[in-house]
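Why this split exists: single-chain examples teach little about how molecules sit against one another. For that reason, every record in the complexes split bundles all components of an assembly together and asks for one structure covering all of them. Below is a record exactly as it appears in the raw files.
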Amino acid sequence: MKPLLLALLPLTASAASLSIQPPRIVLHGPHATQLYTVTFTDNQGYEHDVTTECASPNPARATMRAVAVSCRGLRATAPVIIAPAARAPGISFVNDVSPIFTMSGCAGANCHGSLRGQRGFKLSLFGVEPKLDFDAVAAQRINRQQPEQSLLLKKATAETGHGGGLRFAADSLQYRTIRDWIAQGAPYDQDDSVRAVSLRVYPEERILLGPQQKQQLIAVATYSDGSVRDVTRLVQYSSNGPDTAQVTANGVVTALEAGETAIMVRTMGQAVAARILVAAGPTAADYPRLAANNFVDEHIFSKLRRLNIRPSGPATDSEFLRRVYLDTVGLLPTEADTRRFLASTAPDKRRAEIDRLLNRREFAELWALKFTELFRAGTREAGAKGARIVYNFIRDSFLANKPYDRFVREILLSQGAHSFAASSQDGLPNAPTSFYNISFDSNAPDHATNISQLFLGVRLECAKCHNHPWEKWTQDDFYGFAAFFARVGIKEVYENDENATQYMEEGAVEHPKTRKKMVARVLDGKQVPDSQDADIREELAAWMTAPDNPYFARTMVNRVWKHYFGRGFVEEVDDFRVTNPASHPALLDALARDFAAHRFDLRHLMRTILNSRAYQLSAEPSPSNRSDTINFSRFPIRRLLAETLLDTMSQATGVPEKFPGYPPGTRAMQVYAAGAGGYLLSSFGRLSRDILCERDAQPDIAQTMHLISGATLQNKITQAAFDPALSNEQLLEQIYLRSLVRLPSAAERTAVLAMAKAGDRRKVFEDLLWAILNSKEFLYQH
Amino acid sequence: MKIPMHRRGFIRIGSIAAFGTLSWGDVLRLRAAAPAKDISIIHLWLAGGLSHLDTFDMRPQADRKYRSPFRQIPTTVDGLQISEHLPRTAQRMNRVTLIRSMTHKQSAHGAAQTLMLSGHDALPTLLAPAMASVIAKELGARNELPPYVNIPQPRGNNARAGFLGPRYNPFSAGNVNVPNYSVRDMDLPLGVDWARMEGRHSLLHLVDAKIRNWDTSEAFGTLDSYYQSALELMKSPRAKKAFNIAEEPEKVRNDYGRTQMGQGCLLARRLVEAGVRFVSVGKGDNEWDHHANLFPAYANEFMPELDNAFSALLDDLEQRGMLDSTLVLVTGEFGRTAEINVNTGRDHWPNCFSLVVAGAGVPRGQVVGASDADGMYVKDRPVEVPDFTATIFKKLGIDFQKEYVSNIGRPLKISAGKPLNFLG
């Protein structure tokens, strides 16, 4: 992670330098070799791959004591450490042959790695099961007497017909490895327990300045016996964004167009990613000096500067006001609020407004609704009442600014009747115990899936059925995590129709294959044995909410960032993995550290984000940042939340919405029940909560028809009161301020006033309201 | 000042049509490749999972803990018997193909529905498009009606367009089995005529001027294209007529059955007549998921509803000469367990289940495959879902080996299966 931090420090002119990757070369045994790259760092801080210019194409060998390079008047060295040979001589099927199937694409999901294999030849997906692969290969695809006649080689070289075409040539390294292995008698490893346990790629991040710039990647694997090995020519490379950068089978990356992508590097069940950023060119001489409001801006702006992308200008006061109201409290400012804010000359008026908003009840209600939906509260038996209990608990937690770690701990440890029980000692309601009773058959694996995804940003679910092909998670990890919930049970109570979550006397989670009882284990960490008289979830909560937990704070930071910017550093927000790298890893880390250091104070986190210049940039693109989609060079335009849309329609027209079963004056943001609140909400993305997923903000035809002619809008327009005491001009301004938080433009003013003068005033202003409520400026956050 | 009236803009606001209208070149290319018949599909979608053991693949001799309380009755196919609660269907089995050996491995609703509706295994990050959405994209709209309609509405993501984008999502027709059914929001509000709506649109154009050029993700263009399609649909006399199920004689409506599936199938026929390519007809929210009290629910509600809707639809299509160009598909996402559980229900069972398919050249009176003694596993001729979807794509003249690049960059063939040779 260190190199990333360095890479994102603000640019200052500094001395050029030369370096070698890997910086320390370890060779096991006399025949081991290691490819390396030479990097020139120029005086602007940009790094360039100068390997072909500065070094011999030969790898480091055991005969060397160090690699030394002199080039461009600079020197660099890397020590070569000779270690004992790691394993038996000869070619290993597990560690030499099997990886070829992955790197050559044979073991991919659309080829022999698919569930059903291909033409009777089935390999394990990405080579995670070498013994099965060996059996498939050894069965009838090799010829020990005449290795060159082996079907395996003849197919891969397309010498005989092969649906997959040519995978490697007869003079390639891959070919020679497999041929020599067959000539050795095609043995399976006597000890196949030595496996790759981690993979590292050099560099982990690189900015390429313009199209056609190249970078060689170096891959080094570490094995379970502690040895390391150069696997640069033994891994599969693939670009997540082939329009931005391509990569060859030998790991040479070529920049194509400005943007950012990850190059996935994969072998033997391991995967890592190198982040490749392609800038149109180095920072221009006249690149503006950008003042930072806080550390958020330092990170955002330094990356923009390095990519030579100019941010948009600042948002106007009226744009900022509308934006921050919608994002924090889900409402528009009133006409009076807007006039007061626009008239104020106080230099810190934006900061003061943010503080005011974060203390409002509607702020807590917005997050209550978001989490009620994430918790999928109120489905099945729990019903609307269950949803209300959960909603109230979350709302009150946010109102009290309860630290996020405590909030999650209370939920994790909850037990008792699913009712609004007596308040705990500090006057706050007890945690919603129905959290564990999402569906009628919720069980320990379900809890493991939900909790890992919600609070840790890890999609552990794949590992429920099979080891994850792109991640390190195994079934042991999944069921070890699930074992924390082995004793969580639902007790059916028939009185009052209320169930209860109970921590049972006993309970166990079994591994589905071995049938062994699992000992609880935190992700990436220690086992926690169960003891009869303790609630093992305490240990889980302690691990999760520890300030240095690698998942907990970052997941919430990412969620909060996405709420305000429409896009997480990691997308999807609950899919953290090495092959899905963050757009701003150092900023994510810094925000997470700051969040933990401030005792998980959510308002502090949000204040930091909202007070940044990045949040207060205009949404209007500039020629320089028009094609940027992930660097927050302008405020991203996005659709409003369904509830916000409905509530602001009510505000703009002055006609409140009625929700059956809720008291008059209820806003959509306060409608807690699953799937409730009417057609507009459901068609604009409110979830039924039957599955764990994020909302989809894409439009569709039904939404559009509802906006054009639906009753929601039509009722509000026809019931809107147009104050007869106001002149047409005054009424026009009132409508614009209430709905778009701005005054009408000259063109708008002239056109509408002319129409109102000539025609039916009521009709004209109804039509204007229709047009405003259908406009992009109203429907979108910007 | 007079504000400009964007008459042309009113008709064609965006450059992208929401239903994926094709260019003339596309049309010519498709014509060259198209099969003789332009085939439409009506899918009776039994979401939740139909019990094959109480309907199309019964085991009267099974052990008590497995045995359905229903009797079997003869059908119009020699030697073929089905449930007593499908009497009208029994009379029409000589017009359909019954597959008794469908099989897959997904036992959760979501994953199984994704597989059945898309032909692809569900992956947590890859949003595979439903077969109907692929058809909408590949063949486009026939006219101003949407190519893919879902009755009443899609549930979850798996009936939707996934990475192909919302342009190919289904249009929801809503519940048809209500008095005075109409499609939501199809008609202009009271007091607003098209002239006034056009005026409103000119104002909208004016208000949009400020941020029209701020969007770089094409979201605005997409929204504009939806306005265009929505307005075309709302103005279309053809669409209005197709959705006006009240035009149907009382006798016909009763023949289909005054049920969600009955009226849904009748509307589906009208929509296909008017040009819709794919209509899915269901009961809503996994209604067929009978973990408890299966038998009374089947006998009293679910089977009569299916029996009447399916039989009436077959007769109606045949009588109108539409059956040769309309594929009718009856299936849920899986079958149900042989063992009857303690709540007298049956649980999810994907290993072996039944599917009925008719029309569009599918052989009549054919039974394909067989299950084992208890109806648990396939004994003969297993039929995998990807092969089934490949067959459908081929029938429609779609190059099913074509690859899309998915949302995660992974290539995805339209279908990875091989067409089955026994479906005509």
